[in-house]
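REQUEST FORM: STRUCTURE PREDICTION
Request ID: SP-0412
Submitted by: Lab K.M.
Chain count: 1
Length (residues): 278
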Amino acid sequence: MTARALTAPGRRHGAGNPLLGHELRSRLRLFRKLGHTPLTRRLAAVVLAASYLLLVGLLAFSMVSHDPPDGSSLFAAVAVISLLLICFLAPGCTATAIAGERQKGTWDMLVVTSLSPGEILAGKLWGRVAGLFLWLLGPLPLLVIALLMGRVEPEMVLATAVVLPTTLVGLAAVGLLCSALCRTTGAATATAYAVMLALVLLVPLLQLLVTWHEPVLVYVTCPFASWMALVDDPGYSGMALAWLGPAFYMVLAAGSVAVLRVRFAGLVGDRRGERRDG
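STATUS: Completed
RESULT:
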């Protein structure tokens, strides 16, 4: 990224943000590099073979049972696997965004540019979130095949379209917050995954140990529970529980970004003041 691009005035949080473009290009170069490694090719081959076997197994079962093909099982399996990948990829993807700049010694150079704290955060967050969205486009053909097979309820499509993006943005924002609070990428990554495991596993387990009758926190912090609640009853009777999970992760993302903006506002002002005095 050139100094001229960073110091150009009148930048905004969208496509005109040079840091956002830099992060997107970095993600694309990383994906291209990973795509040429033997391990990635073998992993992709395993995933494709497993998806093919799952599809063939569902079709064979429908032929043996003399029932029409059921695409709901395939759709649910792909949606749950995608959600699992989000939980494990989103925190680590953004946990290195700021801590990595500190370790490379380029963070102070970044904060003294003409970019505002909001533009820096937008570039770091949305550039990496957009890269994860590219990963999630991989299972899209399987979802289309499941829809063509039939028996996929609109509730399942709605749950997938709501829970997956909100969980991705929420966990990515938490990872970015951990990256700002920790000095090293290792500490930031470990903290981000600890928060993710606490939200997805620890809090629901503690809630179930306390009470089985009204496990509200299970639907709030565990995206898998909120996905199933939306699939079962997204209407008015299930509104109180089904929509708590997506709302919680959007509030979590907004709160993390607000904390980062407040933290960076003073930091950027101090660094630029030191630069003018120097």
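NOTES: Residues 1-14 have pLDDT under 50 and may be disordered.
Reviewed by: T.R.
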